[in-house]
From TrEMBL:
Belongs to the LysR transcriptional regulatory family. InterPro entries: HTH-type_LysR_regulators, LysR_HTH_N, LysR_subst-bd, WH-like_DNA-bd_sf, WH_DNA-bd_sf. One of its GO terms (cellular component) is cytosol. It holds the Pfam family HTH_1. Keywords: DNA-binding, Transcription, Transcription regulation. This is DNA-binding transcriptional regulator, LysR family. It comes from Actinacidiphila paucisporea. PROSITE patterns: HTH_LYSR.
Amino acid sequence: MAEFTLTGFRVVHQVATAGSFTRAAEMLGYTQSGVSRQVAAMEAAAGAPIFDRTRRGVALTPAGQVLVRRATEVLAGVAATELELAGLRDRLAGRLTIGAYPTAAMALVPRAMAQVTSGHPGLAVLLEEAATPALLRRLRMGRLDMAVIGVGHGLPDYDLSDLRQTTVLQGDLLVVVPDTHRFAGHAGVTVPDLAQEHWIAGDGAAGEPQFGAWPTLSDPHIAHTARSWSTRLSLVAAGLGITVIPDLALPALPTGVRAVAVTDTYWPRRATVTVTRPHPSAQTQAMVAALQNQAARLQEPPADS
């Protein structure tokens, strides 16, 4: 007696999704005759046709609709089983929710997430981007396992006394200019060099770093303000002004702009830190280590071409 098989469910589901035997075969890496044999075996088990062949492809019969619905459930169950079994082999299996301020979420945090999850497929990492005050509230409420925030000169003195802190990096600020700008080919500039520039300023949430004009520049000319990094950098690329960016965001720079160092002895570095509750889990500690690793990579000098 013919029986339903996992391979058969997978093939039927793919044919229904693709709309044809030919496309399903290409997506599965099978021959078309192999797909036809699997469908025939499933039709034998069902005791009824699964597909009607039409000039435009295939259409599901009533029996086919039942099989595809059940195939979806079966394949989801198999995927869940594989994930649970991976969890038994992985001491970090579980769920980790990390919050980050927008600049850290541009490159640093996604790279650390990828590092951790590539080695631990049983760990699901979720990211929430928000302003620092909101992140700290969520952390204390238990909605987050950890938060990545900025601290230092020009930022609020957050109360972190009940939380565990780990420094991820000490960062520099740079100016971002269009690649046609007079500074684009310079290794660095000074604060007086910036005096006559038009600036694209940030309009972020209260308590967040407000990047825009150089912070020690007196009476800068603000040409435009924008909340998002993508808008600010697009304005720069269009030649409408220049802006300030922290070095940890350099990997996210779009084409059409250049980052230039600024010599300024009066501007101290800011720090990016992780904050957790006093006794972080193994998953949280692994993410902190990944953040430190990726921060070190971000600050490595570019390789000689």
